[in-house]
Design goal:
This protein is α/β, with parallel strands linked by helices and 250 residues long. The chain has helices spanning 8-22, 37-50, 67-80, 90-97, 105-127, 137-142, 163-172, 177-180, 194-198, 202-213, 223-235, 237-240; strands at 29-32, 55-59, 83-86, 130-131.
């Protein structure tokens, strides 16, 4: 039976080996460094796998980004001695927002995520790099990502780790507590946090998801939370399944 417990040392070895293998033929990777735990773990593992010269980071703050997050991201990049650049996306976002067809907050958050990916992919293309994504298994299973935004990456080193497992790996890697202990947020609008938007804590979410993965019912978890997550998995199939197309040939 699969559990949430991991062997951090073995996981580090597997992920760094994965990054080395997948980047063969490329000059390295570029990552969006947000000041959050997932991107910090990914950047640290990439630097271990490839060396500092093959890891590039873009900080892409907007008007809703906390100054502390950008500061934490830059501090980590300096610590890892990786190449990094900050691009304020406010002007780009405002230009697109002026032509938006909706005032919906989440839709505008998706615009921000897609702007970031456009810049990451353009940078990757200019230097023959892969875009390294920071999504984890908790997010992937419930579709908690932006279609054609943060999902538009080339590799996902944390794709088989739940959020609580990423936290354990971060501790193993000695990531600064200023990063690991802050509330997870994509910074897509003022005051946004992952757990508020999902509606439950990551600890509860991961207990539910591991139970689903094991085809069992989660213990000590309200049924309404389990039903909520099952519904999120169901309604996000358009994100997690391949794009459908008709079978027209005999």
């Amino acid at each position: 039976m699969k559990t949430l417990k991991i062997n951090e040392k073995e996981i580090e070895k597997k992920i760094t080996g994965f990054i080395k293998e997948k980047t063969k033929g490329f000059n390295g990777i570029v990552i969006g460094l947000s000041g959050g735990i997932d991107s910090a773990v990914c950047a640290t593992l990439a630097a271990k796998a490839l060396g500092k010269d093959k890891v590039h980071a873009l900080m892409l703050p907007s008007s809703t980004t906390k100054e502390q997050d950008t500061e934490d991201a830059n501090k980590l990049a300096d610590h890892l001695k990786i190449k990094h650049k900050t691009i304020n996306t406010k002007e780009i976002y405002n230009t697109i927002k002026a032509h938006s067809f909706t005032d919906n907050k989440k839709a505008h958050g998706n615009i921000m995520a897609r702007i970031r990916m456009i810049l990451l992919r353009d940078y990757a293309h200019s230097k023959n790099l892969l875009v390294l994504g920071t999504g984890n298994k908790s997010e992937l299973m419930i579709g908690y990502f932006t279609k054609n935004g943060d999902s538009g990456v080339d590799i996902l080193p944390l794709g088989d780790l739940y959020k609580t497992q990423v936290r354990a790996l971060a501790k193993h890697l000695n990531i600064d507590k200023k990063i690991t202990e802050k509330p997870p947020s994509a910074g897509l609008w003022q005051g946004q946090t992952d757990e508020d938007e999902i509606g439950i804590t990551y600890e509860t979410l991961d207990r539910i998801l591991i139970a689903i993965e094991n085809n069992t019912e989660p213990k000590e978890t309200p049924k309404k939370d389990t039903d909520k997550i099952k519904n999120m998995i169901k309604t996000s199939k358009h994100k997690t399944d391949p794009t459908p197309y008709p079978k027209v040939r005999q």
